[in-house]
User: What shape does this take?
Amino acid sequence: MLSNKSIQEITVLNLGHKTSTGFPVEELQDGRLSALSIGFMTLPDLDLSCFNYSALQVLCLFSCTFEGLKLGWIITDCVSLRELRVGFPTENLKINSKSLEMVVVWGTKASWLVIEYAPKLDVLMTSIFPREGDARVKPKRSHPTVSISINNADSLREVNYLLLQYHIITVNSVPISKKYVPWNSVKNLKLGLNVSSAAQRDSLRKILDSVPMLLELCIRRMDDIGRDEGFDMIIDCPFEDLNHVTCVTTCLSRFSVEEFRGGAAELHMIKCVLRHAPHLLELCTTHC
Assistant: This one.
């Protein structure tokens, strides 16, 4: 029935029934459909031939059940797709798209996200947490992780919420928190980390080396002030040499700390940025 209405935008939110309720995506055969938003439903027939999406530009899935592999096929086949928003899924995603400009994945529990090829990608949000009881976690002291792999995305300007306590991040197959890899396109970067963790502070310092054109940096504190945080900063000061970091000395204009608690590591970080960032225009700390 919908396929005969020449509809360009469809939003369907299932607020009164079980999320197992199926949505007949295969009924959407109109080639003029440009935006599709579906919430709290099951998409059992999500497949390459299930509907006509030649003009689809925006796809939003909120708390929907689907197969990640099949969604990947759809993304590749949607030649006009510019914006993808996926909220609260439990599926791993692989993205290969010549047209995508924005990918937002949030509230997710997954093992990995792969950006395989996305030459036009401008904004990436990765609020992804590890699945509980991930089978890959064997040592007792290990923690579940999420693999974030970003490849062939040379236009990527904004990256939001890479979570250093969970994410193993590779850029063009290089682990960015351990080795230098040129990530020259990135201008805005938001990172979440346990500030009291020396290992995560060191990862942050290494990432800054790889983003020489960075204009805005936001750090979100994910932990409470550590008991030994002040003592740790006496023997471990990874930000003292920010005068050797290209983005800090040449272009960083905005620095913010979210969930600021006034810990020694936070204050040390702020002092070093103020000391070595001559182009800094705005410093902001917030605590909710």
Observations:
- The CA atoms of residues 12 and 143 lie 37 Å apart.
- The radius of gyration is 21 Å.
- The mean pLDDT is 88.
